[in-house]
Design brief:
The chain is an alpha+beta fold. Helices cover 18% and strands 35% of the residues. It is built from 2 helices and 8 strands. The strands form 2 sheets. It has a 5-stranded mixed beta sheet with strand order 1-8-7-6-5. It has a 3-stranded antiparallel beta sheet with strand order 2-3-4. The longest helix is centred in the last third of the chain and has 16 residues.
């Protein structure tokens, strides 16, 4: 099996974004100019982020995978980098594969969680520091 992370393009400014309406959460990763990104169409509640958030914060877990209604998302960590891939489950097409420095991405991720979800943060989504 080929290591899909070798096909990733570096996206050092990749930043998570959360927009929450009354009925739905919209979650994505995008570069500063929004030229490249990954969206999560089936993660539309804060609780949908729990498994991925847990994976991001831990070192002792295997690569992450999720799929729903034709959408696929893979995440991997190799040394000090995170790798993300989005594709189509039905066709096998890969839409995008990006990598980012883990420390920088995690700082942005934790900040976005705290600001975007505020008081609605589920206990399992709270930053590791307990804030």
């Amino acid at each position: 099996m080929t290591d899909w992370t070798k096909q990733a393009r570096a996206a050092e400014d990749l930043t998570p974004r959360i927009v929450q309406s009354e009925n739905r959460l919209f979650f994505e990763f995008a570069t500063a100019r929004r030229a490249e990104g990954i969206d999560f169409p089936w993660w539309d509640r804060p609780t949908d982020l729990i498994a991925f958030t847990d994976w991001l914060r831990r070192d002792d877990v295997p690569d992450f995978f999720d799929a729903d209604q034709g959408w696929t998302f893979d995440a991997a960590r190799r040394a000090d980098r995170l790798y993300f891939r989005q594709g189509d489950l039905d066709t096998g097409e890969v839409f995008i594969t990006l990598s980012v420095d883990r420390t920088d991405f995690m700082a942005r991720f934790e900040a976005v969680l705290a600001v975007s979800l505020g008081e609605q943060l589920d206990r399992d989504l709270r930053p590791s520091s307990g804030a």
